[in-house]
Amino acid sequence: MNSVIVVGSFNVDHVWRCAELPAVGATIAGQYATGPGGKGFNQAVAAARAGVGTAFVCALGDDAGGALARQLAAADGIGLRAEASDQPTGTAGIYVDARGRNCIVIGAGANGTLGAAHVAADPELLAGARVLLAQLESPVETIEAALALAREAGVATLLNPAPANAPSSIGLLRLADLLTPNETEFAALLNRHVGERVEAEAVAALDGASLHALCRKLLPHGSVVVTLGSVGVFVSHPDEQLRGDAQTHYRVGAESVSASDTTGAGDAFNGALAASLARAPEQPFAAHVRYANRFAALSTERAGAAAAMPRHDEVQERFGA
Ligand code: RIB
Ligand code: NA
């Protein structure tokens, strides 16, 4: 049974590791590697390796990238529901510097053609599912339709509003029971949708009460989890929906690991969070966040995006159950 349904992108990532990110006009040397990525696929792999039944809804081209997605989904036991696209499979060009920081260019390709009809085509998809997880690397109407279908079916909706420059609407955001922006995405959504001017760089330093108030403005009836990289995570719940926690808002510190590649760390967090929620919905929300933090921390010690996702038993071995 598929407990987590991920709707989103698959990309073939082309990664260059370099001492520093290239400046405009510069030509520099780096070490090249290629591997599977795309926020959707990374999150699906994370959920599957976290140990819950996972399905992945995406669009693939009729090419080597599409074949790779099929092969890797099967290897991780992911139920793939791929729409055939006349566009090439999605790609990403990624530079990673010596400190593990990255910048990314996306070629959406097939991801840009994923249709709402494809998501709705399988009436069995949501039967028995607990969490639907989506991001914004696919057409916004498709993501909106997927969240609405899940809501109708009583499946919890988790929206990772990434990347920061993706189109969105307040209506879309409010289809989420749970919204997981990083600080850049959080600032962008506040500026765009509720007229709050906040600098991304200032988010982590805001006090809890101010952050909570901003989260409440953005998503009055849902929980917001703002991921703050190496600083950890800020959680904000509506008063009426504490999800087993004792407080409406709190921080959870990051695990200390020696990060060598943070590509896909946010995806690791989201996939693991969805999996943990699906596996043990009765647990306090803070426990799910702690698990997702640990899972994401381990993913940063390895190169690559989807390939870097740890497994449930590795997380337990490293941090205890
Ligand atoms: O979040 C990381 C991912 O963003 C990469 O795998 C790349 O494909 C882009 O989608
Ligand atoms: Na990584």
UniProtKB/TrEMBL annotation:
The keyword Metal-binding applies. SUPFAM superfamilies: Ribokinase-like. Keywords: ATP-binding, Carbohydrate metabolism, Cytoplasm, Kinase, Magnesium, Metal-binding, Nucleotide-binding, Potassium, Transferase. Substrate binds at N11, V12, D13, G38, K39, G40, F41, N42, E137, D267. One of its GO terms (molecular function) is ribokinase activity. Pfam families: PfkB. GO terms for biological process: D-ribose catabolic process. ATP binds at N182, T227, L228, G229, S230, V231, G232, G266, D267, N293. Residues 1-310 form the Carbohydrate kinase PfkB domain. Its EC number is 2.7.1.15. Catalyzes the phosphorylation of ribose at O-5 in a reaction requiring ATP and magnesium. The resulting D-ribose-5-phosphate can then be used either for sythesis of nucleotides, histidine, and tryptophan, or as a component of the pentose phosphate pathway. Belongs to the carbohydrate kinase pfkB family. This is Ribokinase. The gene is rbsK.
